[in-house]
Amino acid sequence: MFKQNYSSKLLEEAVEQLATLPGVGRKSALRLALHLLKQPVDNVDHFADAFVKLRHEVVYCPVCNMITDDGECPVCSDRKRDRSLICVVESLRDVLSIENTGQYNGLYHILGGIISPMDGIGPNDLKIKELVERVDAGGINEVLLALSTSMEGETTSFFIYKKLMDKPITITAIARGVGFGDDLEYTDELTLGRSIENRQPFKV
User: Fold this and answer.
1) Are 156 and 115 in contact (CB under 8 A)?
2) Do 197 and 104 reside in the same domain of the chain?
């Protein structure tokens, strides 16, 4: 395999680090590194500082597990939201996708992944116990399962359903406007919004 010869070890290290990002190959990493090299030093310092602060200072909402700057996230602390409805999602990206539809006004619960034995992820690695505790605390009338429609997503939804089926709540799932195997973040806002609006009782 062809290996690029760099005139600078510093440039080579920068390229190697950029190439670790998802979807960034070595050619793209080199282009990004050279672009940053052309920028004013202050701009690059601000750029780097934003990521250092993100990694060191970001926290997770103690209620829903969403990323936030301090304490409860803006959604959990918003008293205008429907606090009787929880939408269960895999990640923050799904929350952003759903929020962009403007069709949902409840709360969220981020699992932090989905059950995937091939990847070594089991139920205990996810925030499922915390979801059950939120339901047991009272005030919840509906749990909307909005996980990906892949085999792993369906398995996770079924597992959660089994945990909640005896609770005095309604368990629903997004309508099948989202095709089988689709991730929510790649579904267009109109389709996703209609899938939430037309949600149906969860069926096993």
Assistant:
1) yes
2) yes
93 and 164 inside one domain: yes
Residue 76, domain member (yes or no): no
Query: Which range of residues forms the domain containing residue 164?
Result: 81-201
Q: List the pLDDT tens digit at each of the 204 positions of the chain.
A: 445 667 899 999 999 999 999 999 999 999 999 999 999 999 999 999 999 999 999 999 999 999 999 889 999 999 999 999 999 999 999 999 899 888 899 999 999 999 999 899 999 999 999 999 999 999 999 999 999 888 899 999 999 999 999 999 999 998 765 443 345 555 556 667 767 776 778 876
Looking at the fold, whether 139 and 175 belong to one and the same domain comes out as yes
Domain with residue 184: its CATH number is 3.40.1360.10
Measured in degrees and rounded to the nearest 5, phi and psi for residue 185 equal: -65, -20
> Beta strand pairing status for 59-60 and 67-68?
antiparallel
Interatomic CA distance for residues 36 and 45, integer angstroms: 10
Split into its structural domains, the chain has a count of: 2
- Do 131 and 191 sit in the same domain of this protein? yes
Whether residue 101 sits in one domain with residue 23: no
Give me the long-range contacts of 112-120 (CB less than 8 A, separation at least 24). 112/65, 114/90, 114/147, 114/148, 114/150, 114/152, 114/153, 114/155, 114/156, 115/152, 115/155, 115/156, 115/159, 116/152
> Can you give the pTM of this predicted structure?
0.80
